[in-house]
What we know:
Helix content is 45%, strand content 15%. It has 137 residues and is an alpha/beta fold. It has one domain. Helix 2 packs parallel to helix 3.
Amino acid sequence: MIDQLSSYKEARGWEITAVFDGWLGGWSTEKRERKKGIEIIFSRLGEKADEVIKRLVQARGSGVTVVTSDRDISRYAERMAVTVVPSEQFKERMERAFAGHGEEREGDDEERGMKKKGPSRRLSKRERRRREILKKL
Length: 137
């Protein structure tokens, strides 16, 4: 996973932090290291990675994007005005980037017959922000 994230980081230029659980068999303190340009954080013994992620979201603010499929973390991040991308969606984007398919085109919705018109069809602010982030991924 770190190899894939590193390749993705090189291709896109994003700063990436991966957080892993250490609560059952980790160190007595939080451990941080850098491998292949990726910041890796292991939670300390007795602390779940979820708590570390929440702390990072609070510290770094709305300028970050959280990739997770955990509902609790998603809700927390959204309350803090942080964009959340589901893990599966990020994985698809990463695979597409490696396969050389490039970015989705702007008119994809129109081609699928899903063109939306008028203010009643306007996406929520959260959804618009999430889609903008996805375009950049």
